[in-house]
Amino acid sequence: MIEVLNELVNNRQVLLIGIWYGYPITIISIILFFIKSSRTKRGRAIIGKASIISMIVFIFIVNFFAKISDRIPINYNTAACCVQWIYDIVLTVEVVAILIYKKMQ
């Protein structure tokens, strides 16, 4: 598994996919934070719950990265790819959690 992960984080295409995926997910999250329904009491509660979930995911992913960092060689591309995908995953979890909570309430 470490070999496959090493191949993924050292692949330039995976980094570029992460970069291009990061743009729309960032715009979507900014829109969700600033729409009118997010400024109400209920909207802020939804964003708060979603932020807690995304923070927990962030903690797990960063600890996983720290755990495997001694088994894979870290260079610029590896670090950039890992940081980009951590960012993308956390924002995706945030957006999905906001949308799920909005559907539930």
What key attributes describe this structure?
single chain; mainly alpha; 84% helix; 0% strand; 105 residues; 4 helices
Q: Helix segment count?
A: 4
Shape: elongated
What is the N-to-C succession of helices and strands?
HHHH
Kindly name the structural category. Answer: mainly alpha
Major sheet summary line:
none
Query: For the residues shown, what is the average pLDDT?
Result: 92
Description of the structure:
- The protein is 84% helix and 0% strand.
- The protein has four helices and no strands.
- The N and C termini lie far apart (40 Å).
- 10% of the residues are buried.
- The model has no long low-confidence stretch (mean pLDDT 92).
Summarize the structure.
The protein is an all-alpha fold and 105 residues long. It contains 4 helices and no strands. The termini are far apart.
Blueprint (SSEs and pairs):
Blueprint: H1 2-9, H2 12-34, H3 41-68, H4 76-104
Helix pairs in contact: 2-4, 3-4
